[in-house]
Design goal:
Helix content: 25-40%
Number of helices: 16
Distance between the termini: 18 Å
Structural class: alpha/beta
Strand content: 25-35%
Length: about 625
């Protein structure tokens, strides 16, 4: 397995040029992006027809395509267009594509502007297009039934990290002589690993070296009539015993825990046709609170920072969709300013931003003057500006995730699970009187630190940390429309006023709201925003207390356990709103045997099985 040690945070952007015929041309690779006779027509002839599509995805629940060389995205758009017009289409279409030189959003829009046939789809693609950050990026389209997973970076590093089984391959890198890195024996071996027996492939090139590599890797290759002026193209089939499509499994799950983690897990399963019993030990929903959504950055670009980039962009996409679909999500994409503690940390912040070259729309280092301008008031100094950072009320996420799938998810309030037992192919959740609350083939534990009690064999290392949030009412003297964080945070509330948080206390089970903790929060706020808390009396403030579930490595716990039929989503810590959506998507993808939305090493790093080693 290839390691992920050698990596870049950002990628160089592709430049859009055109040759004498007006065809999009790459100055970097000295090759055209598509035939002068039409990009969509080429995609339809070579890649769709070459792979027997749309016929081969019919009657399928899920169909996965792997492409080498996303380029302008014309193959994706042509495929999505064909899928959307096919009344017998598969339930879900996965399109996974590798690209080492992605276009920026504006250049992509310009490149796709001439293609009126797919203009609405192209606009959706451009709107969802991520910044040029290396790694895995999952994008949802068509109410989530079309999933594009972009692998941005070097194919030789990223393909070994892809957990997927492909039904069709689009080999569409630039010409082998122009871009040999996409046609190496190592890359072709990875394509053979990912392709299911019986998977098809198509490519416009008929170079002898490519034919030899594909044949040697286990593909049966043949020449076919090419597109337009190109006389020939290649098509092929992955040799081996073709797997019979398994009958549709019983898609039912018990989800233990009705908070943020459980609600996200149930919603992601429901999007794939599952039903879930959401067992919430609480009799009433949790009180209002607010949390931040921002990524992690550090000088070493450690594992938590690398995973957080994809998690952050996915979380924003997920929350935006919940909000736009009218499910009552309380979120505010106001931006997050993270202030350095002192001059030394300010220097580190600047070094991280400069050395790793983050796109400014993702992370930007701002000096004290710019920080003050963003906040609209005095701040203690310089920091990072996350322009797309946001706040979200976790309780509203739970409500929105319940509303989105409708009757597919049934919440049972006051349903505390005392133990789990296996009966045949079913897991049963039992109450204190040994009565069965619910049963299903799959049980997902999303009940915070209590998960360790229900499955002691998983050897989880979970701890509970108390946190108190302080609420300040509206005041003209406390105008602040962005989040300011660093020593805690100060966040504007949608209904007016601000939340200040949060304390961090180990081994403290007190669920009450304490004046002493309000005083701590006010002191943190004052250290970041001089004068912000002037005249506030901690004795008369409202607040909220919650409990985080933490893990020593500060990464979430998501995935299947070593116990058949039991999976987990817990350990979200202080960053549940950041980790939760992508962790839930990864869990649901794994249960459906679909391409994972994150690298193999990253999925392993958050797996509950890591505690067994």
């Amino acid at each position: 397995m290839a390691a992920m040690a050698a990596h870049s945070v950002t990628l160089p952007a592709a430049r859009l040029a055109r040759d004498a015929s007006g065809t999009p041309f790459s100055p970097e690779y000295q090759d055209v992006y598509h035939s002068a006779h039409g990009g969509l027509a080429q995609a339809r002839h070579v890649f769709l027809a070459g792979n027997g599509l749309p016929g081969r995805w019919r009657s399928r629940e899920s169909f996965a395509i792997l492409e080498t060389g996303f380029g302008m995205g014309l193959n994706f758009l042509a495929t999505w267009d064909a899928w959307s017009k096919d009344p017998a289409r598969c339930d879900r279409l996965h399109f996974v594509s590798v690209e080492n030189r992605p276009f920026g959003r504006d250049a992509l829009a310009e490149a796709l502007a001439p293609f009126a046939d797919v203009a609405p789809l192209a606009r959706s693609l451009v709107a969802a297009w991520p910044p040029a950050l290396a790694g895995f990026h999952r994008l949802h389209f068509d109410s989530g039934r079309v999933m594009l997973t972009l692998l941005l970076g070097d194919a030789a590093l990223l393909l070994p990290q892809l957990v997927a089984r492909a039904d069709a391959l689009y080999l569409d890198g630039f010409a082998p002589a122009k871009n040999p890195a996409l046609w190496t024996p190592e890359v072709v071996r990875e394509l053979a690993r990912i392709a299911r027996p019986g998977a098809t492939l198509a490519t416009w090139t008929v170079a002898g070296g490519v034919r030899a590599l594909l044949s040697g890797a286990g593909f049966r290759i043949e020449k076919r009539v090419g597109f337009a002026a190109k006389r020939e193209m290649l098509a092929g089939v992955r040799e081996g015993v073709v797997e019979a499509h398994a009958p549709r499994r019983e898609k039912r799950a018990i989800v233990v825990g009705g908070g943020l983690a459980g609600s996200l897990a149930a919603e992601r399963l429901a999007a794939r046709g599952w039903t879930a019993e959401l067992l919430d030990a609480r009799a009433t929903p949790q009180a209002a609170a607010v949390g931040l959504v921002r990524p992690i950055a550090n000088l070493r670009d450690a594992l938590n920072a690398r995973i957080s980039r994809g998690a952050f962009l996915y979380a924003l996409q997920h929350y935006r969709a919940l909000a736009e679909q009218g499910h009552g999500l309380a979120w505010n994409a106001c931006g997050v300013l993270q202030l350095a503690e002192d001059d030394d940390e300010s220097a580190r912040f600047e070094a991280v931003a400069r050395s790793q070259g983050y796109p400014s729309e993702f992370l930007d280092f701002v000096d004290a003057a710019r920080a003050r301008e963003l906040a609209g008031r005095a701040v203690r100094g310089a920091g990072w500006w996350f322009a797309s950072g946001a706040t979200v009320a976790p309780a509203s996420v739970a409500r929105a995730c319940a509303a989105r799938p409708g009757e597919s998810v049934r919440r049972l309030a006051g349903a505390r699970v005392e133990r789990l037992e296996r009966e045949g192919a079913m897991w049963r959740a039992l109450d204190r009187d040994d009565r069965v609350i619910a049963e299903a083939p799959v049980a997902i534990l999303a009940n915070a630190a209590d998960a360790a009690r229900l499955v002691p064999d998983a050897r989880l290392r979970l701890a509970t940390v108390r946190g108190q949030v302080t609420y300040l009412g509206k005041s003209p003297a406390r105008e602040l429309r962005i989040v300011v964080s660093g020593s805690g945070y100060v966040a504007p509330l949608l209904e007016g006023g601000h939340a200040i948080g949060a304390t961090y206390q180990h081994d403290d089970p007190d669920a009450g709201v304490r004046t002493a903790d309000h005083m701590q929060n006010l002191a943190r706020a004052e250290s970041m925003l001089p004068g912000f808390t002037e005249g506030v009396d901690a004795r008369w403030l409202d607040g909220w207390t919650g409990f985080r579930t933490t893990v020593p490595d500060r990464l979430p716990v998501a995935g299947a356990t070593a116990i058949e039929g039991i999976a987990m989503l817990t350990g979200l810590g202080s960053r549940g709103l950041l980790w939760g959506p992508l962790a839930a998507e990864t869990l649901a993808s794994a249960l459906e045997d679909e391409p994972l939305p994150m690298a193999r090493d990253h999925a392993g790093a958050i797996s509950p099985r890591r505690f067994l080693s």
